[in-house]
Amino acid sequence: MKRNLLPILFGFSTLVVTAGAGHAQSENDLEKVPQLANRPRLISPLVQAAAHVSRDAVLIASKGIKSVSSPSTGQFCIELRGRIVRKTAPVISVDWSYSTGNGLLAYWDPANNGCPGATRRTINVVTYSLSGGEPVLSNNVAFVVAVP
Q1: Share of the chain above pLDDT 90, in %
Q2: In the predicted structure, residue 15 carries a pLDDT above the cut 60
Q3: SS3 for the chain, per residue?
C-alpha cells in the first residue's frame, strides 16, 4: 500500500518555522533559551511527536516528548512519551535561528550509538559543524525533529 507523503510533509512544514538565510546568528546576538517549566506545546496534528531543541539540549517546544539530553558533544538523546510508536525515520532539520556558525548538519543515528541506555523510544540526533570542509561534532546546532 503506497502512502501519500503530502500530509506528512505539510504537517512537518507547519511545525518548522526558522529564521536565517543559510547562516546562523552570531554568538553575541544569540540569547540563551530559558529553561521553561511550562514550555509551549507544538501544534502539529499530522505527527505523533515533535521537538524544537536548543543547542544546549533544552526543549523549546514539544509534542509527545518525555526528555532531551546531551551525553556528549554533538549527541542528543530524545525520549518519546508513552504510546508513541516510531514506524518510520524521524524528520530532522537544523534551526538556524538558535544555532551559531555556518555549515551546520543534523541527522538521525538509527543505531543510537551516542545514547547510553537507549530504548526503542530513543531518537539519537547527531549534530556537526563543517570545519575546513570536514564534519566535526558540535554543540552549536539547534534543530527540530518530527516523528510521523
Answers
A1: 59
A2: no
A3: CCCCCHHHHHHHHHHCCCCCCCCCECCCCCCCCCCCCCCCECCCCCCCEEEEECCCCCEEEEECEEEEEEEECCEEEEEECCCCCCCCCCEEEEECCCCECCCEEEEECCCCCCCCCCCCCEEEEEEEEEECCEEEECCCCEEEEEEC
Average confidence score pLDDT of the chain:
79
How much is the average pLDDT of 59-77?
A: 95
Cell of 11: 504537517
Distance CA 103, CA 91 (A): 19
Instruction: Report the distance separating Cα 30 and Cα 20, nearest Å.
Output: 12
